[in-house]
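Shift notes (night). Ran ABC transporter substrate-binding protein while the centrifuge was going.
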Amino acid sequence: MKWFAFPILFIALALGGPAFALASPTETVKKTVDEVVRIVSDKEMKKPQNEQKRRQELKKAIGAIFDYAEMAQRSMARHWRDRSAAEKKEFVSLFETLLENSYAGKIESYNQEKIIYLNERIDGEYAEVKSKVVTVKRDEYSLDYRLMKKGGKWLAYDVVIEGVSLVSNYRGQFNRLIVNEGYPALLKKLRSKSEEIKAP
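Came back to this:
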């Protein structure tokens, strides 16, 4: 996938940190992305002996604002309604593990890229924050965050990188696998990926 080549873009997956009810969508994104940058830029945290602590802080930041259940449901699209409550619960858990762990390493590749917030658009309970990433070589990439208001705070349910939606990308992959091989095949693949990620 195109955006896999740009590690800094995975900071988009780290919208974690404290969520404030009165914060605007942009303020929420900026404050939490700043927290992730702080973690990956901390010299003490970069030491090998602190790897586990660093990963835990990153996962905490990532999980604080991402609505994994919403992302999982949108990624499954029409196939979601066919799942039992137990299946939905397991799928959300596997999806969360996939996102949290797959991109922790990418986020750690942060190399002083600059994030510029362009504008935000609010439409009722939904919002989009547009930004761009400028690398040290002055290359630029668009990075947009889609959020929805739940419980008085903004939660991220999608990230669009260079016009590519994370949720839409997964939706296409999941749909193809379910249609061609069945839901059990998707579950098996996600379980395998989860174990692979957890392995040292």
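The first strand starts at residue 114 and ends at 123. The chain has one domain: 2-198.
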